[in-house]
Amino acid sequence: MSVKISGLPNEEKPGAEELERLKNKKYWKSLEELKDPEGYAKAVRNEFQEELPFGEKDDSYLSANTPRRDFLKYLGFGTAAATLAASCQIKVRKAIPYLNKPAEITPGVPNYYASTYAVDGEYCAVVVKTIDGRPIKIEGNTMSSVTKGGTSARVQGSVLSLYDVTRTRFPMIDGKEASTWQMLDQAVISGLTAAGSAPVILLTSPVISPSIQQSIQDFIKKYPSARHIVYEPVSYAAMLMANQACFGQKAIPAYHFENAKCIVGLDADFLGTWVSPVEFTKQWVTSRKIDPANPAMSRHFQFETYLSLTGSNADYRYVHKPSESAAIIIGLYNGVAAALGKQTLPNAPAITDQRIVKGIGKATKSLVANQGASLVVCGFNNPNAQVIVNALNEMLGSGGNTIDWSTRLNYHQGIDAEMEKLVNDMNAGSIGALIVYGVNPAYDYYNADKFISGIKKVGLTVSLNDHNDETTQLCKYAAPDSHYLESWGDAQPRTGYYSLQQPGIDPLFKTRQAMESFLVWSGTANADALTYIQQYWKTNIFPKYGNGDQWQHWWDQTLQNGVTEPLQAPAKTGGNFKGDVNTAATQLVSSAPKPGSVEIVLYEPVAVGNGRHGNNPWLQEMPDPMARVTWDNFICVSPSMADKLNASLTRFNEVNYHKPVARVEVNGKSINLPIMVLPGMHPEVIAVAVGYGRGGNYLKGEELKQARRNLGVAAASVGKNVYPWVSYNSRTGTFNYSSGVASIANNGETYLLAITQSHSSYEGRPIIQETTLSAFKADPEELLKERNEEYAKYGNDYRKDATMYPDQYPYDQGIHWGMAIDMNACIGCGACIIACYAENNVSVVGKEQVSKGHEMQWIRIDRYFEGDHEDPQVVFQPMLCQQCDNAPCENVCPVAATSHSDEGLNMMIYNRCIGTRYCENNCPYKVRRFNWHDWNGADSFEDNLWDDPVVLDMNKSLTRMVLNPDVTVRARGVMEKCTFCVQRLQTAKLHAKKEGRPVKDGEAVVACQQACPADAIVFGDANDKSSKIYKLRQEQKNRGYGVLEVLHTLPNITYLAKVRNKDEEDFFHYEELTHSL
Amino acid sequence: MGVNSLYKTLWRKLTASLVFAVTLFFFSPQVLWAQGAAAPKGDAKAGQTLFQTNCASCHNPVSKLIGPPLQGVDAKVPGGMPAIYDWVHNSSKVLASGNKYFNDLYNEYGKVNMTHFPSLSNQDIDDIVAYVDSYTAPSSAPSPSGAPSGQAAPGSSNSLIFGILTLVLAILVLILVQVNSNLRKLANDKEGIGNPKPVPFYRHKRNIFILVIILFFVGGYLLVDGATTIGYSKNYQPRQPIFFSHKVHAGINQINCLYCHAGAEKSRYAMIPSPNICMNCHKVIDHYTGPALHNDEGKLVDGTAQIQKLYEYTGWNDQEKKFDRPGRPIEWTQIHNLPDFVYFNHSQHVKVGQIQCQTCHGPITTEDEVYQYATLGMGWCVNCHRTTKVQFTSNGYYTIFTKYEQELRSHQIDSVTVEMQGGTDCNKCHY
């Protein structure tokens, strides 16, 4: 796809040949496509990777003695078998009505309850869709001004964890079922009493629920020796400590990315994992969308040590070694200080990488130019670094503008030093009792062995975790917490912003929510969670937020809304900065890790998180946004590092899934991991995701079975646990997630990684359009000029004039569904993928089948690289059925199982499909999915389910409760694809018809659109001139294009071309390419 | 040919008269009511609909249900119609005012409050009264179910006659052909032309050829026809745990379908009512007094025993009039089974499409035991979608079909069918 260059200063104009090369920006999905396009094309020609059972040259079958007779035999048998199967007597089905139907339930009609997702400090205001009494889908709650209706993949996937078959189902003593809760409670209470003056420790994940906080306070009142310690495996302690030092508050202030014109991210993946990604994405994207009347954007710089989601979406991305972090932070500070005439920091370490020096210069300039509208965020878990960043923000006037100290973010509370001390105390035998809730240090504490040896010396051990996980197995008592969809609760994500959690279903098992356990143990008379919460709200929140309302009315109203917030957001204020920057800088430099030739960085993956969500097959099967790998963690290395590891690119590619395995040693602990070449990594840095390898690495046989029973099939020993590579920095008192000394060596083995990147090839056809903000401003029409000129040759209307059948699909009345996806907004987070899983009963196929290209996701997010393979630009493009009005799939179906609707939908009729896969072959977008096996038990033959432990797990009758009853479960041998959530469209139309009016704009919402935290998807009736989609297509004419529209497929999805806020010369890589291919 | 067309004409005429007779039979009660309606000031016809929608679940015109029989109510109630208006609009208020007549009634009928109907106008109530006054119990008139069977006898004897006639004619044709061929043979003999060696007709090549062709087409037709109905279960009539008679409830007592199947207007499911709905009436109605019930094998069914079964399920103690046991749900056998890949929504058809229940469920008001009336096959659905007209002018949703609106105005089309606005698109039912 060519992009015209305009508005370049004369002296920078490249030569004619160079210009030609640069004009044709080339997008590549993977390295081999870049290096060897022909070989790549050959390798991915087959959409599915396995060989057909009979090769072209193998004619043994045809030359056999009686092929014709055999053929007839099989044909005869097949016909007879099919006839038998089809004519078998129809099962007698029972219809069992309620004995006494609750008034609010109408079978078949969903109810929606506002609730709150708050797990591991991740918060989201949600609406739970329940049908016939069971929750089946989570939506964002638009009434919350914190998450504003956005969701993340994890929030979307949380409904599946409700039906997790490995959840602990009853209270346990010594791993055996306790017959009653009373029995357990008595034992625990007597244990607590026996602890006497020895400390009783409540070790929890961050608690953002004010009522649970209160119940913990009650507990501490009852047992004065009790202490509450928050532990987070992925820690934000440095921020809390630095803010304590600088502002006197051990808290995180509210950030306002929407007010920032210049954003600098220092290893902070704030769109993917850092602090509160959904909230920040909502904010960030407001300044990234283009208003065609007045195009403006924030400028986003990212300095990072690995290829993160946020870095991929930045305008400028600079990759560096973890050992250079200190130099970059100080360099940036000094740059800004110098420009503002303030005092610079002494002893700034030199930066050798000229790209980074240039980058700091650019970022400095931009920050200084946008004082009061700039924001620097830092994900480095080092308090000294955070102090300098605080000072930098202070210098730039961010306080009160982009940083607000009048409201604080409560998501993270863990102080690493407290955990460290606890483990030491445990080993010293001085801890009387340990109650763990929501944390699993036996798995995710860096020195798990020490924790395990310590816990054995604790008198009373109780676990409130919902699984019999690594830590629970070590505890004498298990008092399993209910799932959040079964519990009452509340949350205070931001100070002053409250949120209520109401259950969508009664507890499925004999579990009890944690708050009630705390209440019972502290001897509260009425240990009912709802009563306790109501009491808390009545005394603490209602007086401030009630506005003179009746209590009951206000409570009902708040429960229905799910949230209660200050009527007017409090005015933003800055903090009173009193940090000591100079000392911080000195300490930062002196404590900086020594640079090594191979440095390692550990990161939290976007889908699985810190490991808590390991047993969620949806999240495991969601491809990592960057590496596009499922079901595993791996070593991300740069192409040049791969070369050094004696790996040629033809072997190290994304087409061949058998990856070389490297032995990596950090802190004296070595782990074998597969190597994944990822452009955009630093040549001397490797990155590995935490959160995998639950239950232990390399489990086999009985051990594996045991782990699967306890932790779940999707979690147990999937990937490798790399938490042991985390270290504790005793000087700063924080956990360290990077190391300067790692050794890596190819150990000659190979390992199968299920990578989805090269699935669904476009064979090099153009699909991406992008430009820079300045070019777009200078001439908005330039971007699509070539395309429009090309189409103009066919007449005034390409749609009608470029076809022999102009009247085939007139769409001149009624509804014509259409979608638009803003590539400026899409950050590639994958919330839509999981939303689609939940809404459309998309099947999970397991790792082995993913590696064969059999994954069933209806929407995928394609990742494209562009430019230098060591430092590429990244583009994300959600790809789903384009509902072409002139669909190539439709006219090749021999049985008319896919055809077109009056509303512009490309329909897929499963019961008609005979599985020729012609449609899939003919689809230029490669969005059709074939059921290679029976994933759902929907086959006409029983017991035909694909024999993969994960598939079997997804088909347990408990797990199947998550299925959406409005969507057919597809059988083996049929094709499926995105339907534009036709069940939702039908429901919206039915509502309108019942009320005797046309469908309102915004009434029909598709699942991916609703889940998107970036509001990248607009959907509606394009025939309705007042609809958002119609207006957007008119207003954004200069950016809207259809992918592969030159084929005259007439796609119903408009993509809005990506605009980067980059200078022209950087956009086209005019600067000298540091690496050559 | 002549015989054939004669046969056809005769058949057509007979069918027409049959249809006429049946129609007349069905409509005669209405005619009767319409005449009777002349006396009171209300409109009995309108009253019938109102009665069935609002009153029938608790009242019968001539017999006791939850509430008293309503026939002659205008004469019975002291204070006449105005008192009735007040009572219907707000019964509690009338009771509170100490009205003796109504308080006595209230006590007599187990102190069950009558639902308030503030939305019914005085005219509506007049209509209802007119209807109940003109009502004649269906048990005294021949039941509608009797009609088809009564008429069926001549129909079947007709076809017997025609069958015999056809057979006679066919034999006649055969004889004539034989005569013809014999005559030709004689003529040939006479003229000295040699006759081919006689072949029996069943070994005649031409006959065998024709037979094979006929068998092929007939066999093929039967095969295809049979194959397309594999999996259909029309006329499926399972035995249910309780002999629940729709004829008694919806037919004789005229309870509105939606009173029990409330989901039909709201949900994809019409909903089998939960027993607590049954108990709304059956707390009071504890024995069956209607006409004798017979099951499909002709055996007598004890209606009261069926009500006792309901008590068994719900845990109702009929002596002490209270629930004193835990109940258990009733496991009905589902009659109308759609495959998983078909989405059907009752409310779309009942509420939006204003389709009568009987269109798909057949003469439900005459059935003691329900059977599957329609094939529920796709052809059956699609045919209806092709011919049924949508509520184009009365439902605002359809205003988005601007072109049809213009065409209707200019009389290019006279109506819009379901199909014309996408009602036969696959993804209306399959997704």
Question: What is the CA–CA distance across the termini of chain B?
Answer: 51 Å
Structural class of chain B: mainly alpha
The helix content of chain B is 40-55%
Q: Largest beta sheet of chain A: what is the strand line-up?
A: 7-6-18-17-16-8-9
- Number of separate structural domains of chain B: 4
Give the count of helical stretches of chain A: 35
Low-pLDDT stretches of chain B: 1-7, 16-40, 140-155
Describe the fold and architecture.
The complex is a heterodimer of chains A (1077) and B (431). Chain A is α/β, with parallel strands linked by helices and 1077 residues long. Chain A has five domains: 10-20 and 760-1064, 2-Layer Sandwich (Alpha-Beta Plaits); 111-164 and 493-574; 199-230 and 413-459; 237-399, Dimethylsulfoxide Reductase, domain 2 (3-Layer(aba) Sandwich); 594-755, Beta Barrel (Barwin-like endoglucanases). Chain A is built from 35 helices and 44 strands. In chain A, the strands form 13 sheets. In chain A, strands 7-6-18-17-16-8-9 form a seven-stranded mixed sheet, with helices on one face. The radius of gyration of chain A is 29 Å and the shape is globular. Mean pLDDT of chain A is 86; it is low at 1-14, 52-56 and 1070-1077. Chain B is mostly helical and 431 residues long. Chain B folds into four domains: 37-134, Cytochrome Bc1 Complex, Chain D, domain 2, CATH 1.10.760.10; 199-230; 246-366, no CATH class; 378-428, no CATH class. Chain B has 17 helices and five strands. The longest helix of chain B is centred in the middle third of the chain and has 46 residues, at 146-191. The model of chain B is unreliable at 1-7, 16-40 and 140-155 (pLDDT under 50). Chains A and B meet through β2 and α32 of A and α12, β5, α14 and α17 of B. β2 of chain A pairs antiparallel with β5 of chain B, so a sheet runs across the interface.
